[in-house]
Every structure is written in C-alpha cells, then in structure tokens.
Description:
The protein is an alpha/beta fold. The chain is built from 10 helices and 6 strands. It has helices at residues 3-20, 37-43, 48-68, 81-86, 89-107, 125-138, 154-171, 176-182, 185-190, 237-248; strands at 29-33, 73-80, 112-117, 144-152, 202-205, 224-227.
Amino acid sequence: MTPRSSSLIYRLYERRLERQLRDTVPPQHVAVILDGNRRWAQKQNSKASTGHRAGAAVIRQFLSWCDASGIQVVTLYLLSTDNLTNRTSEELDELFQIIIDLADEISRGGTCRIRHVGSREGLPEQLCEALTAAEARSADVPGMQVNLAVGYGGRREIADAVRAAASEWLAQGRTLEQFAAKVDVGEISAHLYTGDQPDPDLILRTSGEQRLSDFLLWQSAHSEFYFADVLWPDFRRVDFLRALRSYASRQRRFGS
C-alpha cells in the first residue's frame, strides 16, 4: 500500500467515526494518562526528552480535538510525585522545561484556562512561577478548562483535602472530634485540587497499560476507562475518536 492510499483510507475511516459520533453527547471532563513517551524515544534510539517533546506536540493537537468536540474540562497527567523521586535529575530538568514551555504556550493561545493540579513540593521555583503565570494569564478565558497535573499524586491529594477540611473546621471553632464524627464525602470533595470541577467522565490511558498510577483516585469513582495500545507520541485523531465512540456506547449506571 502506498503512503497516498494509506492516507486516503485513514481520512475515510476518520470521517466514518465522525458520522458515528454526530448525534452523541461527548464527555464533559476527559482525563488523560499520557503514557509511552520514554518507550517511544527508546524505539527512536533517542533520549527520554525527545519522547517528552514529541508527546508535548501531541498535547497541542489533542486539546484542539477536545475543544472542537465540545469537551469542557481536560486533565493531563504530566508529572507524578513518584516521577520526582524515580527519574534521573537530567530527565527531570528537561521535562520541567518542556512543561514550562507547554504551559506558557497554552495559556497564550486564548482558548483555554490553565490550572495547576498537584503539589508544588519538590518542584523547581521556575516551574512553579511558570504555572502561576499561566493560571493568571488565562484566568478570564471563557474556553475549555485545562488542568496540568504536575507533581500530582492521588493519595497526596486526598491527604491534602482531609487536612484542608479539618483546618477549616478548626477555624470555625469546631473540634477535631466533631470533624471525625461529621465530615462527609462532599466536604472532602470540595477540598480536592479539582474541587469546583466535575469528576472525569472518561479517563484515557495510552501505551497499552491498564492501571491508574495514582491518578484521580477519588474523582474516578464513576469514571469510564479507555485504554489505547498506541504510545502517546503516536496518538492520532482516529484514536481520540475511537475513545469517544467507546464512551458513547456505554450505559453509565452510577451504582444503580
């Protein structure tokens, strides 16, 4: 098969997927575990930063696909708390700069609001400043909400939320004994990093792995999951449309 014929088949398949999605309701919130950058780089006989840069280029395309599909919130898992302790300093330094550049570019695009989702502990000052600047720069943009999960860990988030809720109780003159007896799910949810946002309807993970890796543990209680075999830098619009088609075919019961 020639490249030209392969491209034609790809476009025809893409249009078929678009027709199948025409009368469906898209997920309101899509969260993505962007997995496979380093394996992609290894296949190219290159260092990890090459894969991270290739992955960042796909993020820019992915956000445009989400926006065009009517998705309102996107959460991107860019750097976990585990990554901060398990990756080399060289790889982390390069990844920090890639995230800085990505946050800056997205926040200047005029179509997305940026929020840093995660802890700033262990992050370099330059990265923290870039995330703060991106949030401020895009705060009034009326478009899609984009959460950048950097220095993020699901267990850490829940612990932080419980501490914040307990501190609020104490500030209101109530005791920890009362907190332990009366605190409910809603109060913990309100103090999560994404407390004012809807929980993800769809969580997408690339590279063929089928695990959460400490991502949105609380928020994913009723999420739908889609696992794509493709490595993130090779993720195409047809892969995105397949994920939406899979989501649209499911009957969400929420425990009923």
